[in-house]
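Action item from last meeting closed. Structure (314 res):
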């Protein structure tokens, strides 16, 4: 047996060639690059995940389903019964090597910065875990009912996100982390048409209402979706810096890689949803030359790899 640590799991996965990998994880997020490497290296990958407490992003599930549709080496399964959904974190390699512990198949999880995995090289133990997995009811993304189940889960996920939207006390002294989105280029005419079509689809699915769609701003956010519905994020668009609430997210299924589009609404300055008021000094620090792309420590603004900024209240 061996305790995995210090990014060992990501390194281990990316070194695999022509293997069969089974991943059972309560949550999956921020690992499309790792999955792409696994598939490029000729590995067969099966991912099993769930919907426990509606924490798992339906947009990531949609992207995984898209990849599974395109690549025969990849199979994706979801347990849509949130009450009995998996909370396991298990990885098996060729039914011979087992990794079990607290690390979800997420960028944070497999970095092992705050989680751990135990490596067990016993075929019998692998088989026992895989047999237990079969007791749960998983639906393949290739099943004809998957899309309908995912649409229903998305609506439930939105409701949960809305209830979890935080209210901030202006007198609070706690530190605040805020997700940042920097608009780097204007929409093309074609992208505007795609964004409008996808928003119509969101209305048809019931994820967003006709009244909610009025006055929304739309942005292309690339091939991964780091945001959640009703999350408050800071958007830098040209010379404008403002808080926005994420109202809807849609993936373009007609795009080969599955591009995401985000629809937001500006948050009023006096709203309790705002974690920290943007003073002129903070705005100037953000808009300082190259500061948007290369953050300095001025004004206590810190940039991480995930584009999260932190302010320490004085």
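Sequence:
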């Amino acid at each position: 047996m061996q305790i995995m640590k210090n990014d060992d799991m990501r390194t281990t996965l990316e070194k695999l060639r022509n293997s069969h990998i089974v991943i059972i994880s309560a949550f999956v997020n921020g690992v499309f690059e790792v999955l792409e490497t696994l598939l490029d290296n000729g590995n067969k990958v099966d991912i099993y995940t769930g919907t426990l407490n509606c924490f798992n992003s339906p947009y990531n599930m949609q992207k995984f389903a898209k990849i599974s549709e395109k690549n025969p080496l990849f199979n994706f399964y979801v347990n849509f019964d949130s009450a009995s959904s998996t909370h396991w974190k298990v990885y098996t390699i060729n039914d011979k090597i087992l990794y079990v512990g607290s690390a979800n198949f997420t960028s944070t999880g497999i970095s092992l910065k705050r989680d751990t995995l135990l490596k067990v090289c016993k075929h019998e133990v692998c088989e026992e875990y895989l047999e237990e997995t079969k007791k749960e009811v998983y639906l393949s993304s290739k099943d004809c009912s998957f899309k309908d189940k995912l649409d229903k889960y998305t609506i439930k996920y939105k409701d949960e996100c809305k209830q979890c939207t935080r209210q901030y006390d202006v007198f609070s002294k706690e530190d605040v982390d805020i997700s940042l989105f920097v608009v780097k280029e204007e929409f093309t005419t074609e992208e505007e048409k795609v964004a409008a079509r996808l928003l119509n689809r969101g209305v048809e699915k019931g994820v967003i209402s006709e009244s909610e769609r009025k006055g929304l701003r739309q942005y292309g956010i690339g091939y991964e979706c780091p945001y959640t519905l009703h999350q408050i994020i800071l958007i830098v668009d040209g010379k404008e810096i403002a808080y926005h609430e994420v109202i809807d997210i849609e993936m373009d299924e007609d795009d080969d890689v599955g591009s995401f589009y985000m629809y937001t609404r500006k948050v009023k300055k006096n709203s309790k949803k705002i974690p920290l008021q943007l003073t002129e000094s903070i705005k100037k620090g953000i808009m300082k030359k190259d500061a948007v792309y290369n953050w300095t420590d001025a004004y206590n603004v810190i940039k991480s790899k995930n584009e999260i900024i932190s302010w320490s209240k004085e």
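Note appended to the action item: Residues 146-163 form the longest helix (18 residues).
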